[in-house]
Amino acid sequence: GENVEQHPSTLSVQEGDSAVIKCTYSDSASNYFPWYKQELGKGPQLIIDIRSNVGEKKDQRIAVTLNKTAKHFSLHITETQPEDSAVYFCAARGTGGGNKLTFGTGTQLKVEL
Amino acid sequence: DARVTQTPRHKVTEMGQEVTMRCQPILGHNTVFWYRQTMMQGLELLAYFRNRAPLDDSGMPKDRFSAEMPDATLATLKIQPSEPRDSAVYFCASGLVGRGEQFFGPGTRLTVL
């Protein structure tokens, strides 16, 4: 089955700086890669996603890039703000599992003033 | 504002008691997922339904856990008997077949004493 690795596990940046979180996946046929943001005491919230036929997608301050050859994808947050502090999860939808997602282990992002 | 709802939000019970968690998926969604989140294991998929039929419950301890969808607007996850190691946050998510996106509820925080 699919295996997703996520790095780093913790990330601390200064407000206004950029943050990058990276994930690798194992199933070369995976075709959908969402990113979730989870704030304390809440459920994961889908913030951006990318499908395998696209190399990059951007939504305001967040962007996701996908490298199918290397089987990795990344989340980029620019001009970070304190409200960006949360745990971020990447996920991948592999083949043979219907709509099942395999999640990374999460990155605790802290944006410091 | 379409969202997944879960009840109860918090549950404290004693070992050996039965616990039932409920989820109302977003109206019109035809896939439902149950996840368990712990610090040690991250997000684990317990069960997956498509059009109310269970497709995958390989992540669920069969001897004590059961998941059902009595109708399209209700999914339940039951633990009987509960054990302290079941203490975790349980999330329900819903989506549409073929789309990939999963939308999470706020979770049920379960504590088994």
Number of beta-strand segments of chain A: 11
For the largest interface in this structure, which chains are involved and how many residues does each contribute? A-B, 22 and 24 residues
Q: Which stretches of chain A are poorly predicted, pLDDT < 50 over at least 5 residues?
A: none
Cα gyration radius of chain B (Å): 13 Å
User: Shape of chain B from CA axes?
Assistant: globular
Counted by DSSP, the helix tally of chain A is: 0
Helical proportion of chain B, percent range: under 10%
N-to-C SSE series of chain B? EEEEEEEEEEE
Quote the beta fraction of chain B.
over 45%
Mind summarizing the main beta sheet of chain B? Answer: 7 strands, mixed
Please count the helical segments of chain B.
0
Beginning-to-end CA distance, first to last residue of chain A: 41 Å
Instruction: Describe the sheet with the most strands of chain A.
Output: 6 strands, mixed
Distance between the termini of chain B: 36 Å
Return the structural class of chain A: mainly beta
SS strand fraction of chain A: over 45%
H/E element sequence of chain A:
EEEEEEEEEEE
Shape of chain A: globular
How confident is the prediction overall: mean pLDDT of chain B? Answer: 94
Describe the structure.
The complex is a heterodimer of chains A (113) and B (113). With 113 residues, chain A is mainly β. Chain A has no helices and eleven strands. The model of chain A has no long low-confidence stretch (mean pLDDT 94). In chain B, strand 7 and strand 8 form a beta hairpin. Chain B is mainly β. The mean pLDDT of chain B is 94. Chain B is built from no helices and eleven strands. In chain B, strands 2, 4, 5, 6, 9, 10 and 11 form a seven-stranded mixed β-sheet that branches. A four-stranded antiparallel β-sheet of chain B has the order 1-3-8-7, with no helix packed on it. In chain B, 0% of the residues lie in helices and 55% in strands. At the A-B interface, strand 4 and strand 5 of A face strand 5, strand 9 and strand 10 of B.
